[in-house]
Amino acid sequence: MRNWSSTTRSPTLGPRNARLVIDYVVHYRKANGSLSPKVFKLTSRDLLPGERRSGVRRHPLRPLSTRRYHPGAHRVQLQITGRPYKSCAFTLHIPPEATFG
After folding, report:
1. Dihedral angle at the C-alpha atoms of 44, 67, 57, 51, nearest 10 degrees?
2. Is the overall model pTM greater than 0.85, yes or no?
3. Which domain of life is it from (predicted)?
4. Of the residues 29, 46, 63, 93, which has the maximum number of CB atoms within 10 A of its CB?
């Protein structure tokens, strides 16, 4: 997966800080074609009212004994304090000679 980036703005417009728990969800393609979500922790941040934060995350897709990768469309999604936000699709191409799982 290539790097993906996101910008987050504090949902607080009043005088109080907002405590955000930021995760990302990778929706992996299963053998039957459905998607299975896996949540990965990013960070917890305190944002001032109106403050913006941006960041870039790289997620490796390397062979693991606990996960089998399947070619096709997958999705990555931002989740802030348990609430899912925009997602974007990416396509995983696996050469026939590769052993992924």
Report:
1. -30
2. no
3. Bacteria
4. 29
Beta-carbon contacts of residue 96 (< 8 Å; ≥ 6 apart): none
Please name every residue paired with 72 in a beta bridge, in sequence order, or none if there are none.
92
Q: Residue 29 belongs to a domain with what CATH number?
A: 2.60.40.10
Q: Please check whether residue 75 lies inside any domain of the structure.
A: yes
Half-sphere exposure of residue 39, counting CA atoms within 13 Å on the CB side? 11
Residue 85, token pair as written in the block: 């936000």
pLDDT in tens, 31-74: 999 999 999 998 898 888 888 878 888 888 887 788 889 999 99
